[in-house]
Amino acid sequence: MAKIKKKVALIFGITGxxxxxxxxxxxKKNYIIHGVKRRSSSANTERVxxxxxxxxxxxxxxxxxxxxxxxxTSTLNIINKIKPDEIYNLxxxxxxxxxxxxxxxxxxxxxxxxxxxxxxIRILRLNKxxxxxxxxxxxxxxxxxxxxxxxxxxxxxxxxxxISKVFAYNTTVHYREAYGIFASxxxxxxxxxxxxxxxxxxxxxxxxxxxxxxxxxxxxxxxNLYAIRDWGHAKDYAxxxxxxxxxxxxxxxVIATNKDNTVKKFVDTVARKLDIKLSWRxxxxxxxxxxxxxxxxxxxxxxxxxxxxxxxxxxxxxxxxRKYLKWKPAISTNELIDDMIEEELSVD
Length: 348
Ligand code: NAP
Ligand code: F7E
Prior knowledge:
This protein is an alpha/beta fold. It has a domain of 234 residues: NAD(P)-binding Rossmann-like Domain (Rossmann fold, 3-Layer(aba) Sandwich), CATH 3.40.50.720. The chain is 39% helix and 18% strand. It contains eleven helices and 15 strands. It binds NADP nicotinamide-adenine-dinucleotide phosphate (NAP) and ligand F7E.
C-alpha cells in the first residue's frame, strides 16, 4: 500500500503562546512541523521545549530554525528549503501598549513581516502552499455601536499594532486576489492561557492575585478597568487556525466566544476563585480593590498602564466559522480562568 505523505507546516512565531498550542495540535495530526525562532540573548523556547522531550508528541517530526521576519532573505530561504504545505504566520510584535513606544519596529514586524512571507510564496511560485495570517480584533478599534463584530464590520484601528494588522489583513486578501494564493485571515479576538505573556492583562491579574494570596506580592497595579474584551482559550483558537486552512477555499473568519467581560469583572472572578473578598472604593485613577479580610489595598490603578487611545469594546460574532468551519469554542472564559489559576498555583 502506498504510504500517505505527511503534511508539512511551517510556523512563524512558534515560540509564542499560539505557536506552541498549534505545534502540539499539528503534531497530534501527524504533521511534520518546522518552526522559526529568532535569536535572543536568553532562552525563548520555554513554551515548546517540552515537545523535544515528550513521548506524547512525535518529536522526530519537530524542527526549529533560526530566522526573523524582518529579514527577507532568511525568510525566503527557509520557505524555499522547506516548501511547506501550510504556513502559519503567528509572528508579531503583539503587544498593543508597546506599539505606542516602538511604532516603527511594530510596523516592520507586524505589517511588513506578513508581506515578506507572502512575497516569498509568490516569488518561489509555491502554488500549493496555503497561508494563514494571524489577524486581530484590534483592527476594529473604535466601535460605534456595541454589537458583536463580524467579518463585515469596518476597521478603525487605534494603535500602530492595529494599523499593522490591517495592513497584513489587506495584504493577505490582495495576494489571494492578485496571485491566486490560498491565503486566509483568522480575525481572532483575545485568547489567553497559562502560556500567555506576563504583561497581558489576564496573566498579570492571575499571576498578581495568586502571588498576593501567597504573600509574595502586595498588590496588582492596572490601567483601564472598564475595557470590555471577549476572552477565549488559546487551545481552542489553535484548532480554528488549522480548520481555516482545511476549508475548501481561502477566506476571512472571525474567531471569538461572543461573550464579554470588563477587566474589573475579570479581577472580581479571579479574586472570588482564590477566596479573596474584594470591595471596590474610589473612582478613576483613585479606584482601589480592598481585601475585606485584611483591609489591604490589593488592586490599584496607575495611568502609566492606560493607552493614548483605547479599544473600549470587543465582542465577536463567530457564526460564519460555526456554520462553515464547524468551529466553536469548547472552553468557557470561566474554565479559562480556572486553567490559568491552576497553573499559577503550581509554580514553585
Ligand atoms: P506572542 O505570544 O507574543 O508570540 C509572538 C511570536 O512572534 C513569538 O514566537 C515571537 O518570538 C515571534 N516574533 C516576534 N518578532 C519576531 C520576528 N521579528 N521574527 C520572527 N518571530 C518573531 O503572541 P500570541 O498571543 O501567540 O499571538 C500570535 C499571533 O496572533 C500574533 O501575531 C498576534 O499579534 C496575533 N493575535 C493574538 C491574539 C491574542 O489574543 N493572543 C489575538 C489576535 C491576534 P519570541 O518568543 O522570540 O518573542
Ligand atoms: O489588554 C486593559 C487594556 O494587553 C486588554 C493582544 O494579544 O489581544 C491582545 O491585545 C485590555 C486593554 O490585550 C492593564 O487597556 C488594563 O483594554 O491584555 P491586553 P489587548 O490590548 O486587547 C488582541 C486581540 C491582540 O491582537 C493583541 O496581540 O486590558 N488593561 N490594565 C491592561 N492591559 C495590560 N496589558 N496591562 C494592564 O495593566
